[in-house]
Amino acid sequence: MGSNTMKRSTVVIFAAVVIAVVAIAAAILLTLSSQQQSPAAQTFDLPDLGGREVRVAVENAYPPFNFITEAGEGAGWDYDALREICTRLNCTPVFVEADWEGIFERLANLEYDVVADGASITEERRLIVDFSEPYQVTRQLMVTRSDETRFSDATSLAELAASGEVKVGAFEETTNFTIASELVGVENVIAYTNDFDVLVEALRSGEVAAVVVDEQFAQTTIDLFPADFQVMGEPLFEDQLALVFPKESELLDPFNQALESMRADGTLERLDQQWFESFDVGLVE
After folding, report:
1. 135: alpha, beta or left, given left = phi > 0 and alpha = psi -120 to 50?
2. Which of 24, 114, 130, 195 measures 20 to 30 Å from 122, CA to CA?
């Protein structure tokens, strides 16, 4: 009996030691896993989101912000910027493909945690969502076919549209559509779903005489088809781009801090040079 009791005691002690070691190891691993932020996070004393997933809505149809590569993978400024933000905050971005139409209403209903997609800050949108600090300034430009001779600027385009001779294209539910409507009248604007190819084809085919788009979109179009399209006239409008969140989101402040750190250490500028190098993107100082 004495011998068996000693053996049982030894086994119990050994098991207790093993459990304690496992518990300590688990605690260490948990601590390490919660410290997977980048060095920049330590430099700027950024919040730690504990590895949580963040659902990021993107269209995958708005280059160079977001698009699908020939290999079937998501790419663009949004992907790189949101991954960098999550590296700094210790979160995991989960990119969700989303239609532009109704995207802010779905965000307000908490279907996503954040909308990227080169969204402009507007007072109308502020009624249902919150914006981060702006990360970029963009201009609204008028793009036409290279052989266009019927008009030479916004004024002559508006006169031609008023006569019913031409239409202007823009993406639906965007500041582009608003500016185009103010320029030529809403009755002379055709709204398109937010698809790069659809808008380019409408312009190429002559369905519309011009399109009003963000300068990033304009330059992507001209880079791809330099002989076919041109920017005509002066910029029509200037607005700020930001990430978009549901009202009172707990992510808004951490993301603002991450964006500020990326601005301070030059990361935002490097991303803009990488994706918008061929033309002048207005950086927010």
Report:
1. alpha
2. 195
Structural domain boundaries enclosing 211 = 138-239
User: How would you class 5 by CB atoms within 10 Å of its CB: exposed for 0-12, middle for 13-18, buried for 19 or more?
Assistant: exposed
Of 61, 66, 86, 68, whose CA–CA distance to 76 is shortest?
Answer: 66
Q: Phi/psi of residue 171, each to 5°? A: -70, 140
Asked if residue 110 lies in contact with residue 90, where contact means CB atoms within 8 angstroms, the answer is: no
Kindly report whether the global pTM for this prediction surpasses the value 0.85. Answer: no
Whether residues 121 and 254 fall in one domain: yes
Tally of structural domains, the chain: 2
Q: For the chain, give the longest Cα–Cα distance.
A: 108
